[in-house]
Structures are given as C-alpha cells and as structure tokens.
Amino acid sequence: MKVLRNVFIALSWYAAIVFSGPVLASPPADRVDCALGWFDASFETTRSLSPVNPLETTLSARGGDGGAIDCAVRIHNGLYAYGEVGKADARLDVSLTLDDETSVGTFDLDAEYQRIGVGYVHPIADQLSLYGQIGYLKSDYEFEPIFVILDSGAAQLGPAELRNDSDGLDFESGLTWTASERLEVGGFARFAEKNSLTFGGAGNSVFALENEDDFRVGARIRFQLAKPVHFAADAEFGDLDTLFLGLGVRF
Q: Coil, helix or strand for 227?
C-alpha cells in the first residue's frame, strides 16, 4: 500500500503542475465582458519519479484541449469582478519498472477549474491602462482508473479510482492598450501560490501534499467583429503553453 500511495502522489503532483487552467478573464472595457471558446494546452515532456517511490517510474505527458467561459463585470469606476469555468482533457503514459519487468499504461486526465476574484484598472496614459487582480483558483483532476499491483515482484496496471482537488490564491497584473475603436491588445504576468492538494485513492483513502508555485506570462487580443460581438485570443507561456480562441460580447 505504501508503494501504491507513493505512485498516486507522484501522478497527482505531476498532473497538478503541468495542467492547470488558462488565464482568460480580462479587465472589462465595458460594463460586462464575457467570452466563450476553445483552448489548447501544448506540452510534451518525460519525467522520472523514481526519487519519490521505490519503483522506477516514468511519466510522458501530451497536451490536450477543452472549452472555457469567462466573464468580467465592472462594479464601480475601475473596480471589477470576474469569474471563469473550464474543462479539458490530457493524456499520460505511465511506465513502471520493478526487477527488470516493465508495465506500461496510457490513461486520460480530465481537469475542471473555476476561478473568481476582483481587480482594478488604472489609466496611466492615453489608450493605455494598468490592471491588477487577485482571485481564488480551484482545480479538480480526475484520472481514468489506474492501479499498481505487485504480483511476483512485477508492477502491473489495473482498475481503481483517483481524484484530487487543488485550490489557492491567484495573482495577475498587466497592461492593456486600446489601439483603435475595434482593436485591444495586452500583456500580463500571472502567479499562483503554492497550493494544498488533497486526493483520494484506493479504499477512499485521502492524502495531502504541497503543489509547486506557478508563474506564467501571456498576451491577449480583442477585436470587435460587430457590436457587441468580438473575437478573443489569449496565449500563455510557462511550464506549458496555452492558446484560447473564442467569441465574446461586450455591453
């Protein structure tokens, strides 16, 4: 069971680091600014987790995609509130080796996240403004059934259940430039604090561990197609790269 617990912890830690929700919410240019669309998380990496469990374990991750919706509402002058909801899929390849015998399995990772918070926009020049915001981010990760069975010294894969939840504070700051009546561009930096993770394994056991801090930079574009509809694009760069494309409304 100790081996099983360590493998579960390793998988959850890895998934939480490389797959968290993209930043979508932007300071509202009007009273209400909402967008709905598709995003892609691009990464491909291989990591050895042998130091955290007695098996020689290698995880190879590939990116995934999903959908998200975000909305920002101006409260008073530069003060606004925002919220986001998203869901995405990814895939992990797991290789476990014990006594020179290797078991390999591939499974899906389903991730959902929610983010809510408040922010403030401050004009610093003609058509240029600075904003900062603080929010609460919650992510839920669910794995396809995976289990580690030790049978005659060999590591194998079989059915079980694994879920984990992560939550913590999220900080973002950036600049927005209104290039024209129809075009708005901006850049931002985002920091998510070290989160506390809890997750369930076999026998409804619950474990906890600390997640790593996450820092990313990004850019966004808003282009008005026809009032009140606009095209929205967001890109993030960090441990993984994300791209969001969607349609929004402002009024």
A: coil
pTM > 0.70: yes
In the block, which residue shows the tokens 């967001």? 234
- List, as one string, the DSSP characters of 146-201: -EEEEETTEEEEE---EEEEEEEEEEEEEEEEE-SSSEEEEEEEEEEPPPEEEEE-
pLDDT (tens digit, 9 = 90+) per residue, 49-65? 555 555 566 655 566 78
For domain 2-250, give the CATH number. Answer: 2.40.128.90
* Cα gap 202→95, rounded to integer Å: 20
The DSSP secondary structure of 33-93, one letter per residue, reads EEEEEEEEEEEEEEEE-GGGSSSEEEEEEEEEEEEEEEEEEEEETTEEEEEEEEEEEEEEE
Let me know: does 88 contact 111? Beta carbons within 8 Å.
Answer: yes
Spacing of C-alpha 20 from chain mean position:
1
Q: Give the pair of three-digit tokens for residue 94.
A: 């797991």
Which two three-digit tokens encode residue 77? 């002058």
Residue spans of the domains in the chain: they are 2-250
